[in-house]
Amino acid sequence: MLLDYLRKQAGLRGTKFMCREGGCGACIVTAATGPGETPRAVNSCLVSITSCQDWDITTIEKVGNRRDGYHPIQKTLANENGTQCGYCTPGWVMALYSLLKSKQNLTMLDIEKSFGSNICRCTGYRPILDAFKKFAT
Ligand code: FES
Ligand code: FES
Questions:
Q1: How far does Cα 117 stand from its chain's mean position?
Q2: What's the confidence (pLDDT) of residue 62?
Q3: Eight-class DSSP state of 85
Q4: CATH number listed for the domain at residues 2-133
Q5: pLDDT value at residue 61
């Protein structure tokens, strides 16, 4: 699976996993599935690596990191206390990052509708939603 390739072969362990069956969102990456395709959120646990030829894949390491600086999504999530143990956080960041790449001028409703993609066992969701709504127009 793409998830295993990223973590084991590419050494990109920022992409996490819990369920391995498309239900938790911990493994989300952003992918344009061919030239000219709009980037979108992809559950990397569900995608065979053999399906990924010509895909342009972005993982959490490229979006923001300690060395190069954090992305505004990461900073806002931290500032709003939307991360506690942090295990689910890369998946949430990649879900919103993908949404922002796929659609300009996100509304509050867009963000609320997208919220079913990820699971967090710590925060109770409200701080994450408060952080994400700051990216609505
Ligand atoms: Fe849960 Fe992929 S590991 S959706
Ligand atoms: Fe712990 Fe989300 S912050 S699972």
A1: 9
A2: 97
A3: S
A4: 1.10.150.120
A5: 97
pLDDT tens digits along 13-34: 999 999 999 999 999 999 999 9
| Side-by-side strand order, sheet with 28-32 | 40-43, 28-32, 56-58
Best of 24, 93, 120 for a ligand 2 pocket test (most atoms within 8 Å of beta carbon): 120
Residue 90 CA: distances (Å) to CA of 59, 94, 105, 109, 118: 9, 6, 22, 22, 10
Q: What does DSSP say about strands 56-58 and 40-43: parallel, antiparallel, or unpaired?
A: unpaired
| pLDDT digit string, tens, across residues 34-52 | 999 999 999 999 999 999 9
* Paired residues of 30 in beta bridges: 41, 58
Q: Where are the domains of the chain?
A: 2-133
Could you give the C-alpha distances from 63 to 19, 41, 45, 113, 125, in angstroms and in order? 23, 14, 20, 23, 22
Cβ 60 under 6 angstroms from ligand 2: no
